[in-house]
Amino acid sequence: MENYFVGWGTLALINAGLAQEKNRSGLNWFFISLLLGPFATFLIVVFAKLPER
Questions:
Q1: C-beta of residue 12 within 8 angstroms of C-beta of residue 33
Q2: Is 36:12 a contact under the CB 8 Å cutoff?
Q3: How does pLDDT run across 3-52, given as a tens digit for each residue?
Q4: How far is residue 7's CA from residue 46's CA, in Å, rounded to a whole number?
Q5: Which of 12, 15, 38, 51 is the most exposed, having the fewest neighbouring CB atoms within 10 Å of its CB?
Q6: pTM of the prediction?
Q7: DSSP string, 6-25
Q8: How many CA atoms within 13 Å lie on the side-chain side of 39?
């Protein structure tokens, strides 16, 4: 059961990095990923990159 939590947390960190690469808030996506897991990864990949500010 412990491996499940470690994997879920690692996925949330990866998603935060992916979100930052697409000019989105890494912290927000970290917390979203803790709730949605792999579905959040799908959303990050599907959403278009935001333009630079």
A1: yes
A2: no
A3: 888 999 999 999 999 999 999 999 999 999 999 999 999 999 999 888 88
A4: 22
A5: 51
A6: 0.87
A7: HHHHHHHHHHHHHHHHTTS-
A8: 5
Please give the structure tokens belonging to residue 15.
Answer: 């998603």
The pair of structure tokens assigned to 41 is: 């990864």
On the 0-12 / 13-18 / 19+ scale of CB atoms within 10 A, 3 is exposed
* Token reading at 10: 């690692």
What is the distance between the alpha carbons of residues 15 and 32, in angstroms, rounded to a whole number? 9
